[in-house]
Specification:
- The longest helix is centred in the N-terminal third of the chain and has 18 residues.
- The protein has eleven helices and twelve strands.
- With 308 residues, the protein is α+β, with helices and mostly antiparallel strands.
- The strands form three sheets. It has a five-stranded antiparallel sheet.
- It folds into three domains: 81 residues, Rossmann fold (3-Layer(aba) Sandwich), CATH 3.40.50; 137 residues, ATP-grasp fold, B domain (D-amino Acid Aminotransferase, Chain A, domain 1), CATH 3.30.470; 67 residues, ATP-grasp fold, A domain (Dna Ligase, domain 1, 2-Layer Sandwich).
- Helices cover 36% and strands 23% of the residues.
- The radius of gyration is 19 Å and the shape is globular.
Length: 308
């Protein structure tokens, strides 16, 4: 009997369209492999409406809030249906930039200096005073602590930009991270089942590798595979990505985003639900290593389990 796969896609986050694209590509691959495939969109029905008697495995194709932060995973665990990608706690920790940074620092993984500002503290304090107190120098990156795909990320070159972007973002998000801007090569590493697949370099035509640079062909981001770095550094960044995957107790596929500056790798974040679209990096890295899109998806399905 064919395994019955339920691809959970779409959802209500700001990354809904990317999730739909990922889901569509994975549905096609799963059908090609020979699985019986159906889809489920949490924007149309609540996750607890999934009929466990008709599903063998859940393929999690969600991105962003409620799909990547442990929420959807907690439903899958409650339903006792094996699912792909990382579990509840690792997903939650990876999505929360403040928590993941603490874990990285505790395991000697270099990450840019930063601090968190919540909307309550912002109302009571002067921003310039806070910046100086935390010893950050311009340019500074502001980002929401719990968004993906570079949504809400702003690079501020002066205090005026910093003030304006903070005022705008603090209305939308409870917590903001202020982070030292690292000027260097953009390197991203794919890891599957604890083993690094490879490292790719990105050269965005835009100010940085933002949402458009990630998902729109018109942005014309240059992809260099393998990354144009020394063999020593190449192997080094693979090991760091594997370590990040391990210390956060991730499962299945992850993608680590790095900046290489002055011969040091700075880990910006780890993604537990990396994109699987025609412009996505994990399939591109896998393809270079001789792993087809279908084989990559199958590896993810074979790794599916509960108690992740």
């Amino acid at each position: 009997m064919k395994k019955r796969i339920l691809v959970v896609l779409g959802g209500t986050s700001r990354e809904r369209q990317v999730s739909l694209n990922t889901g569509k590509a994975c549905v096609k691959a799963l059908k090609k492999i020979g699985y019986s495939v159906k889809t489920f969109d949490p924007a149309k029905k609540l996750l607890n409406n999934i009929d466990r008697s008709k599903v063998d495995i859940i393929f999690n194709a969600l991105h962003g809030k409620d799909g990547e932060d442990g929420n959807a995973q907690s439903y899958f665990e409650y339903l006792r249906i094996p699912y792909t990608h990382s579990g509840v706690i690792s997903s939650m920790n990876a999505m929360d930039k403040e928590i993941s940074k603490k874990i990285f620092n505790n395991h000697n993984i270099i990450t840019p200096n930063s601090f968190i500002l919540n909307n309550f503290k912002y109302k009571k304090n002067n921003l310039i005073t806070i910046i100086k107190k935390n010893k950050l120098k311009l340019p500074i990156v502001i980002k929401p602590t719990n968004e993906g795909s570079s949504i809400g990320v702003k690079i501020c070159k002066n205090f005026k930009e910093l003030e304006l972007n903070t005022q705008s973002l603090i209305k939308q998000y409870k917590n903001l991270m202020f982070e030292k801007f690292i000027n260097g090569q953009e390197i991203q590493v794919a890891v599957i089942n604890g083993k690094a697949l490879g490292a790719i370099e990105l050269k965005p035509k835009r100010i940085f590798y933002d949402y458009k640079a990630k998902y729109e062909k018109s942005a014309k981001t240059v992809h260099i595979m393998p990354a144009n770095i020394s063999n020593t550094n190449y192997n080094k960044v693979l090991r760091i990505a594997e370590k990040a995957h391990r210390v956060l107790k991730c499962r299945g596929v992850t993608r680590c985003d790095f900046k290489l500056s002055n011969n040091k790798f700075y880990l910006l974040e780890i993604n537990t639900q990396p994109g699987m679209t025609n412009l996505s990096l994990v399939p591109e890295i896998a393809k270079y290593k001789g792993i087809s899109f279908e084989s990559l998806v199958k590896k993810m399905v074979l790794d599916a389990s509960i108690n992740r």
